[in-house]
């Protein structure tokens, strides 16, 4: 294989690599946009639900806080 053939193959492989790099970057951008829009919608749906059900929302937060506090108390109590 001559140096000219190796150089031509190397150039061809670099061009393919650059094309793949651009494709992957475009796909990553599209995925990021889609994920951001879905998370934003999910977050807004949660806010809307909490506004419609304030009592239940407070109950859920209070229950989670009590559970976390209880678990932390157990962990700290065992070390003492």
Question: How would you portray this structure in words?
Answer:
Helix content is 95%, strand content 0%. The protein is an all-alpha fold. It has one domain (3-79). It is elongated, with a radius of gyration of 28 Å.
Q: Which regions have little confidence, pLDDT < 50, spanning 5+ residues?
A: none
Share of helical residues: over 70%
What Rg do the Cα atoms give? Answer: 28 Å
Order of helices and strands: HH
Average residue pLDDT: 92
- The beta-strand count equals 0
Major beta sheet summary? none
- Summed up, the helix count is 2
Structural class by SSE content = mainly alpha
Share in β-strands: under 5%
Q: In the residues, how many domains can be counted?
A: 1
Short précis:
The chain has 80 residues and is mainly alpha-helical. It has helices spanning 3-52, 54-79.
Give the tags.
mainly alpha, 80 residues
List the helices and strands and how they pair.
Elements: H1 3-52, H2 54-79
